[in-house]
Amino acid sequence: MKIAFITAGAGKSYCGSCLHDILLIQSLIDSGHNVKVIDMYTPLSVDFDAPPLPVKKIHYSGINTYLRQKFAFFRRRPLALSKLFESPSVVNFALGFGMDVSPVQLGEMTLSVLKGKDGNQALDLAGVMEELKKSAPYDVCVLSNSMLSALAPEIKRELKAPVICQLMGEEAFISLLGEPYRTGSIEALRKNVLAVDAFISHSGEYSKIMSDFLGRKAEDIIAVNPSVNSALYEGIKRRKTPFTVGFLSKLNKAKGFDELLSAFIILVKEHKADAKLLAGGEILDGESKAYFEAVRRKAKAAGIEDRFKYLGRLEFAAKKEFFAGCSVFSVPSLFPESKGIAALEALAAGIPVALPGHGAYSDIVKNTGGGLLYKPGDIRGLSAILKKFNDEPALADSLGEAGRESVKSRYSVKKMTEMNIEVYRKVQI
Asked: What is the pLDDT of residue 69?
């Protein structure tokens, strides 16, 4: 098949969406498909060695998108400076200075991008279409997420190609936008996706959420398992003592680390467990820094600061060491996860999971048998699971190994690729 794959990076942050897209694109290429890659915003970033994707410039680069939003001069015609800011090396250099990625700060620009030709980034939209036309026609065009949906009407009109849109947690981002940008973005999104032929989510539970959010029929959204490369986690053994609870994600309120800390405090204070708490992940903006400082103060006030260690951002070698140091893994996300990649990585390493029973987490635990679920927001329910794993190490071993084997079979790269191709073939004109 000839496939146009339009994907979006997340700055210097390692994200599950980047990992998913790189694994899928490379697998499609290795399987003999002709894949045209359009990289948007920033280069894709993962924490393991991966073959470089065939990308020479970054469309809608974070620099250009910002400049067009703030200054009318940059919206009028293509400039030599704008072309410079599409260079992957220049974008990566700029990312080294850091940026505030809080949705609160990005509402106006988000809405503008979703407006497509009527937004301030119309030149960027035209640039993507020009690039796509160079290799047209396509059997299918894939949008990495619905935040790229302004492209869908243009692809249908100019390229006459079917459009697939992956769903990657966009509703959680949009829900945090201030008004009028939240309502405006939802309206623009729903208008754009009328041009989408089918959607791919990574969880049956999450499909139901997005059906309501997008205003589309449930049958338009097809659940396809995501993947991790299980071979990268072979040989890791679950830590037995001291009993160690692991968390790996962005450190912000939405990921619920404060709930995990509260459950850990109950485990240590009320149940007298000799336990440790490890946290790895990035702190990306000022609001998250304030949140994490509050978490540190809470740990100190509870007298457990010596049991808690923050590891910061982890490269892949350090991440393997992190999993080898875990007895159980938990990310108590306050919102339904769309993919749950970190939980799949933990299971691939043989670490049982304790997760809230919503979104992709529900499907992962049901499909793998690799952990236990609790009612979202129930801190004592989470603490009870941690205590159970601490008290019953044989159970924890059994669930961890069941998860490892299930991830190899049900969440393999091969399986993910086959399921995606099946969807692509269904929408071919």
From this structure: 81
